[in-house]
Amino acid sequence: MDTVAIIVTLLAFTMSFVFALGGIGSALALVPVLHWYGLPLDLARPTGLLVNTLSMTGASVDNIRNKRLDFKLGIPIILASSVTAPLGVLLTRVVSKELVVWVFVSFLLFSGLMMLFFRAGKNKDQYRTDRPVLLPALVGCAAGLIAGLLGVGGGGLISPLMIMLGFNPKKVAAITAFVVPFSSSIAFVAYAMMGTIAWHILIPAALAAYVGGALGTKLMHAKMNPEMVKKFLGVVLLGLALKMISITM
């Protein structure tokens, strides 16, 4: 294994572990970090997508075993994001690299600010218990486009929007971890069909991400305070956004 593959694998494990604590895929941070390390965006995006797929699959397996997942609420998001993820990949062929970078910055800022400052209801009886279709499907459409365009799973969009709609943050974390592998894997296949894949980097990174995601999810549900985790991740995402702005300008 060459030096680049080793470093990417270590980054994939570490970030998948840390971001699984908040129930979102690590590609949101991994893609810009890999790009700064020297990987072209065309390679960093599919790498992030496959890492997301495996890390959040590991998280979902743990959620399903422990009966934390509300399948019925997650299905509309999965179906909608699966349709729009390939469209996001196609947009990369017509949208300039500079615009993609600024969209990424905006997405990082949005996700970071939502994690830091958005407050859901504190009492359990304030959370919604219904399972609507239309609004989650619209969230899924937006998440799928983001997944394909930026090479992320869309979890940074799904999680805050579903919490804004009134759903329990712990339930949302489990749903997000369930949805992200679908949008990420479909977008990844679209990138693979266009030939932008570095398999010698992807395979070890993906395996490490699966382990990191499963361990992070297990630790989060066992011992971590979800609100403190989200605040920490919010700070990380804002820091990444500022770093991208400083490099771009």
Summary tags:
mainly alpha, globular, 249 residues
Explain how this protein is built.
With 249 residues, the protein is mainly alpha-helical. The protein has one domain (3-248). The chain contains 10 helices and no strands. The radius of gyration is 16 Å and the shape is globular.
Quick structural overview:
This protein is an all-alpha fold and 249 residues long. The chain has ten helices and no strands.
Helix content: over 70%
Largest sheet: none
Strand content: under 5%
**What is the overall silhouette?**
globular
What is the alpha-carbon Rg in Å? 16 Å
- List the domain count as a whole number: 1
Q: Which class of secondary structure composition applies to the elements?
A: mainly alpha
Secondary structure tally: strands: 0
Low-confidence stretches: none
| Gap from first CA to last CA | 35 Å
Topology record:
Blueprint: H1 3-20, H2 27-37, H3 41-65, H4 71-91, H5 97-117, H6 134-150, H7 155-164, H8 169-193, H9 199-223, H10 226-248
